[in-house]
Amino acid sequence: MKDQINPEHYKKSIETYDAISSQLSPMEIIGGLRWQILKYTMRFGSKENGTVDACLTDISKAEWYTNKLIQYLNDLKKDGLFIGEPDNVAELFKKDK
Predict the structure, then answer these.
(1) What's 11's DSSP letter?
(2) What is d(CA 5, CA 54) in angstroms, rounded to the nearest whole number?
(3) Which residue among 22, 32, 42, 60 has the highest number of C-beta atoms inside a 10 angstrom radius?
(4) In this structure, are residues 38 and 6 in contact, taking their beta carbons and an 8 Å threshold?
(5) CA 55 to CA 47: how far, in whole Å?
(6) Structural domain includes residue 17
(7) 3-class SS of residue 81
(8) What are the angstrom distances between the C-alpha of 89 and each of 55, 71, 78?
(9) What is the value of pTM for the model shown?
(10) Residue 43 is assigned to a structural domain of this protein
(11) pLDDT digit string (tens) for 65-86?
(12) What's the domain range around 33?
C-alpha cells in the first residue's frame, strides 16, 4: 500500500516538512502542527462518504502530526530551548488574546 500519510512526492533531497520547519519559529511550528492535527481530526468521516479507508487516512494523518508535535516538544525540552512568553504553551492559543 502506498504511504498516504507521507507520500514519496514529499520526500526530496530534504523532506517538505523539514524544509518548511527550517523557516519557522518554534511557536510557528507548534501552531502549524496543531492546525494540521485539528484539521484532520475535524474532517474525520467527511470525505468519500465516510468510508473506513477515508477515516483511517484522516486519523492516521492526525496521528502523524501528533507524533511530530510530541517529538518537537520533547526536543525543545531536551535542548532547553526557550519557546517564548508565556511559559504555558497552551496560553498562546487562547482566542481572547
Answers:
(1) B
(2) 12
(3) 32
(4) no
(5) 8
(6) no
(7) coil
(8) 30, 15, 16
(9) 0.73
(10) yes
(11) 999 999 999 999 888 876 655 5
(12) 24-80
